[in-house]
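Hi support team,

I'm filing this because I wasn't sure whether my run with 3-acetylpyridine adenine dinucleotide finished correctly. The job status page said complete, but I'd like someone to confirm that the output block is well-formed before I use it downstream. Pasting the exact inputs I used:
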Amino acid sequence: MRFAAGAWEERAVTEVVGENSLDVVVVGAGFAGLYMLHRLRGLGLRAKVLEAGDGVGGTWFWNRYPGARVDIESQEYSYSFDEGLEDEWDWSERYATQPELLRYANHVADRFDLRRDIVLNTRVVAARFDESAGLWRLERLQGEPVSARFCVMATGCLSVIKEPDFPGQNTFRGETWHTGRWPAEGVDFCGKRVAVIGTGSSAIQSIPIIAEQAAHLTVFQRTPNYSVPAHNGPIDPATKAAWKADRAENRQKERLSAGGFLSSDSNPVSVLEVDAGERRRIFEARWARGGFAVGGAFNDLSLNLEANAHAAAFVAGKIADIVEDPAVADTLTPKTYPFGTKRLCVDTGYYATFNRPNVTLVDAAATPIQTITPTGVATTAGTFEVDAIVFAIGFDAMTGALLRMDIRGRNGGALKDVWAEGPKTYLGLMIAGFPNLFTITGPGSPSVLSNMVVSIEQHVDWIADAVAWLRDRRMGEMEADQAAQDAWVDHVNQVAAGTLFHRANSWYLGANIPGKPRVFMPYIGGVGPYRLLCDEIAAGDYKGFTVSGAVA
Ligand code: N01
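And here is everything the job wrote out:
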């Protein structure tokens, strides 16, 4: 396996954090860590960011596979905290590419002079709360520990890849790659026979591009996904001008919306209340609009199986229209779970790629992969000889990055034990028994069901305000109450139980990782209501949190 990973350069800890402990240590320099650092600096706090990679950008640093781009419109998938930044940054495409998003992250790091407090090539492997000192002590893979009163985990929801574990994979003589750890210099597939294993968003974005390069592409699909067209292209000047004219209002609407973005507003009508003609007209208009718009075509698609079946049938019809071979179209059509209950994919030319003569679809549910041989991929139907394998097999989502570290709170209690039956948090922001430890877009918050940048800004602002509030009162500790956490966990589960999301074996439920507890991890109650609740809790002197530990 070859991954693009930064060298673990060692830097003296004194160079990194000085002799004294910090006010706040932030783990991760993606969009969350960058803005967190900016806010903490604004409060006059001593903060540093520790980042495992050799550059900033998080998701957009690691996911460099061909075709990688955002699936929420670029103008919305960007920071809103600084007008000057918004004014000067000009997105070139409706859905920005990974290189453009990475340039944006680097621009933000430079514009706000963040780099001097970011330590790259530093993987945090453990974080322990030292109760007597009231400090979090973080251990790095190499180097001395770093201590801080507060620790903010900005470690991302989709940052730990699912490692391939196919029998025989080590015998393979060709190249292997993982979409989530793509090399910065890119991969040249020209003239090669390539296998892509997996058909989630990463595969669906990369398959059309790899197919254009490769001599032959074989796609191994275990479960088909619903995919909708992006209709990507340059953003026309009128759209840019309209967005800019109403930007402040648009941003506020995003913050109070269901998903944190406006481009796919939800139609407040039941699909069951309209006739077949009207139903078709609305679905077609949404399909033509592109992106997640189809998901918001009616208000009951994620709640009611009968309603959902209309969306599923509509997409199935589109697949049948696009894909010339009816057997291939049928294999590409999801049948085992409702529309939208796995993350909807947004593509450019995905289904049409299967009309190319150099592309083969293998139904890895009917004929499962058995082994990887020195020269190919063997299924129960035969062996497919290839020169390169792309594992597009996803991530250990939401809890992976946190549980990979040895995080210990009060009395040495380990997070992995506390979360043995699934993640439990208060608001996705804090965990009972782990004082002064914050999680940005943690499980139990809207996170992956939302425009991540909107949710990141909300969490960063809430955490910065909480730390400032504690400082102003000269209090040293804040911790989620067990009872408040239990009530929140119940609420998160209850809201999810009212939807169809439990009917898919998705990564939202941890179902893609063997042995992971089956728990719906994000909060599906909506970005706007969730924000208002968090604000109300803060305004009520952090109801549900215990504040203690007067400091001099
Ligand atoms: O991962 P996935 P992803 N044998 O878990 C298959 C975000 N994202 O990296 O469903 C055979 O969705 C697995 O099959 P199955 C986005 O939120 C966003 O594509 O388990 N197949 C599935 O088909 C997304 O949802 C963008 O049966 C195996 C695939 O691998 C999330 O990241 C772009 C297998 C994994 O799909 C994850 O997407 C990319 C095995 N042993 C990602 N193991 C944007 O557009 C797994 N699979 C912004």
